[in-house]
Structure prediction request, 122 residues.
Amino acid sequence: PDACGGSKTVTWTVTSSCTGPVTCTAVFTVADAPAVVLNCPANQTEAACQTQAAIDAAYSAWLASATFSGGCNAAISNNGGVAPNACGGSKTVTWTVTSSCEPDVTCSAVFTVLDAPVVVLT
Prediction:
């Protein structure tokens, strides 16, 4: 059967010149692969005017907070790249879990840094 799940019934037969055929059967089963469950982080908003290092650290922690379970030979990835600018901006990130037993599972969330207040010079 398929490695992702299924079963196969096998019949064995013994023949003899003195007796009619004797048979027995058994079923070989591979349990169905558990479905992938992907948990995206919630959208996150950060205040402007933090250091870029602080925004980078918050963004990295946010990227790493996505979790998943299930699948066969599953792996998670994202298209996050670098954090938005500390002066303001946003980035929509998509996480993807690939598994050998089902199509890719994806989810998305947005990381936003509020725009810095406009400088007013009088």
The radius of gyration is 27 Å. The mean pLDDT is 95. Strands lie at 6-14, 22-30, 37-39, 44-46, 67-69, 75-78, 89-99, 102-113. The CA atoms of residues 10 and 26 lie 6 Å apart.
